[in-house]
Structure formats: C-alpha cells, structure tokens
C-alpha cells in the first residue's frame, strides 16, 4: 500500500521549544526526512527514513508519533506525559513497529518521527519533527482469518440437515430483477458488516443466501429481517462438487448469537480466484459449518446449528432455478446485519490483532 505525505500543521509541531517535559532541543541532531512505510499488515509496519550524517552518532533514540487520521485534535506528545507514543532505541533501519500500539486493520494513520539523544540526567535532546506521513493498515491475512475460523469452530455445534438455500427481499426487488436483469439476481459488493479487517467487506461481489432451519421442522423459518418475499433454490444448484467453499468471517452484534460468513464460488470463476488469494478454503465434505456429501448417489446437505450462517454465492442466479413466494411470518428488522458493526469486546469472536 502506498503512503502519502502531508506537511505538518504549525499547531501539530509547536516547534518543540518548550522545556516542560524535560526534553531539550538542539538543532545539531538530524531531522528525519523522506520517510518510507513498507511491509504493511493489519497490525504492523516497517518504517525507515534518511538523515544527514551530521551528529548522527549522537542519536540514541527515535520518538515516533502515531495517530489515527480521523483524530484531528491530537497533540504532539510530551515524552513524560503521553506513554502511548513510542520511544524506541536507535536501531538499524527499517524498524518494525509491531505491538507498540493496538493497531486496527484497514485504518488510516499518520506518523511523524524525531531523533533524540538521551543525556546523563535523563533528559533528551531532540530534533525537529519530520514531515507527517499518512498510510493505511491492511486487511486480515489468511493467518488471521484462520484464527477466527478456529474460534468459530468451537461454538458451531452439531450439524442439521437442510435442502434449500433462500434469500428474502421485498417484492419490488424481485420485480426489478425480472424487468431490468433478465430474471437473474446479480452479485453486488458486500457491505461493511462484520469484522473491520475482513478482506471481503467492500470488495467481494456476491449474493447473500441463508440456509438455517428451524429445529422442530427442519425447514427455513417463516420470519425474516430482509423482506416478506423469499426465493428458494435447491441446495445442489449452488453448492456441489463444482464449487469451492471458503470461510469469510465470524462476528456478533452485541448479542448472544454469532454469525459465520461463508463464500461459495464456482470453480475457476472470478469470485473463486478472489477467494483463493484471501480466504481459508474449507473441505466441502468435512467442516464444522456447511457440508455437501454423497449418500447412495444423492447429495446431502448439513449446516451448523449454533451459529447463523450467511452464505455468499459469487455468480448470478436466475430466478427460474427456484421459486419466489411470500412468507407467512414477520419481518424482524432487529435481526438485520446490514452494515452491522462487530462487538469489539466479545471474547468469543475477536482476535488480538484488531476488530
């Protein structure tokens, strides 16, 4: 990812002339310039810069000021007053910054640097601040998603049999599909619901389906948060030996129940290629969430009981492959996950690198 440079505001830098924190100033120390940010992940980055050779050997420490970009009122730190800013021993550059802050994934930050020389009395001689660099942390990697996957497996519960995928919408949605899209539901960009670091949010194109069933009937529930009209399609039309299955996310919305996002992609499709690069692939016949197995020549399907599955199918789906009918239950808007924010305090569905 590319970083951007903006010139520091006068009030940002404040010339560092005050002595109130025990930090002295001396122009002889070189000012960092041409700052480079590299190797950016969701919770770490490398930083390097150039310095004039004059007095370079006197440098004992680097002061690094990191702020979320949206925090417009942040003040430059005073060494003794704000312990959240990094004071690092002078090490060879580039220097890896990891674990010094709780960096969040997919978040814009600003960073500036000073060089410093620690004196015998504990005070510091410091340079002027560098220019301010802007950069954005990355999405979760497959390693981080695998950690989420393992957490989700713990609470997935036993598997229940099902036979159809379904999608609820308002009647106007299906009328629009018939009139403007030749009867085929089209993939759309996934919203920002779920984990903030999810690599599919705002990037993956797909169509959301559900497959949860009621325990006592084995059929889809009659209530829905998304509309009173339901498209039902036989499970084998979307999930079969010619598709791949991926784990996409695990989250909750300040509730006791949890959601797992899975992605079904026809083999070799653009959606499949997108997921192969970013998401952990699941064994379609043997996993804790959604399975497709063969019994006596017939495909049999099971879903996890104790999590709510949100299934994204990455290709268009023609309405003629299933049926559209009005449900008899209620429209439970409170259960909608549209752009829902993940509970950052939940120990069940969060990992330590961010939310």
TrEMBL record:
Pfam families noted in UniProt: fn3, PHYHIP_C
Any GO CC annotation of this UniProt entry: cytoplasm
Disordered: annotated segments: 1-21
Residues in Fibronectin type-III domain copies: 31-140
Biased composition (Basic and acidic residues): 8-17
Family named by the database record: Belongs to the PHYHIP family.
Task of the protein: May play a role in the development of the central system.
Protein name: Phytanoyl-CoA hydroxylase-interacting protein-like isoform X1
Gene designation per UniProt: Phyhipl
């Amino acid at each position: 990812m590319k970083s951007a440079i903006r010139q520091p505001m006068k009030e940002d830098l404040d010339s560092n002339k005050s002595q109130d924190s025990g930090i002295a100033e001396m122009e002889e120390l070189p000012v960092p310039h041409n700052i480079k940010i590299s190797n950016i992940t969701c919770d770490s980055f490398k930083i390097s810069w150039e310095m004039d050779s004059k007095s370079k050997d006197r440098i004992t420490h680097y002061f690094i000021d990191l702020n979320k970009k949206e925090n417009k009122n942040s003040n430059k730190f005073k060494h003794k007053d704000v312990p959240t800013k990094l004071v690092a021993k002078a090490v060879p550059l580039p220097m890896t910054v990891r674990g010094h802050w709780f960096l969040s994934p997919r978040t814009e930050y600003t960073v500036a640097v000073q060089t410093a020389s620690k004196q015998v009395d504990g005070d510091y001689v410091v340079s002027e601040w560098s220019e301010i660099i802007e950069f954005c942390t990355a999405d979760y990697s497959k390693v981080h998603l695998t950690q989420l996957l393992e957490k989700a497996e713990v609470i997935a519960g036993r598997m229940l049999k099902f036979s159809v995928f379904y999608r609820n919408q308002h009647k106007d949605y299906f009328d629009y599909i018939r009139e403007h899209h030749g009867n085929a539901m089209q993939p759309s960009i996934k919203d920002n619901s779920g984990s903030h670091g999810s690599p599919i949010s705002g990037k993956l194109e797909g169509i959301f389906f559900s497959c949860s069933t009621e325990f006592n009937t084995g059929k889809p529930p009659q209530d829905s948060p998304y509309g009173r009209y339901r498209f039902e399609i036989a499970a084998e039309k979307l999930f079969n030996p010619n598709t791949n299955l991926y784990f996409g996310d695990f989250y909750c919305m300040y509730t006791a129940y949890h959601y797992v996002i899975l992605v079904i992609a026809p083999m070799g499709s653009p959606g499949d290629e997108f997921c192969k690069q970013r998401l952990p692939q699941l064994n379609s016949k043997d996993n804790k969430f959604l399975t497709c197995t063969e019994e006596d020549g017939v495909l049999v399907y099971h879903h996890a009981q104790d999590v709510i599955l949100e299934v994204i199918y990455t290709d268009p789906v023609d309405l003629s492959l299933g049926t559209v009918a009005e449900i008899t239950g209620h429209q439970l808007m409170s259960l909608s996950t549209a752009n829902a924010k993940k509970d950052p305090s939940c120990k069940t569905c969060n990992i330590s690198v961010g939310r």
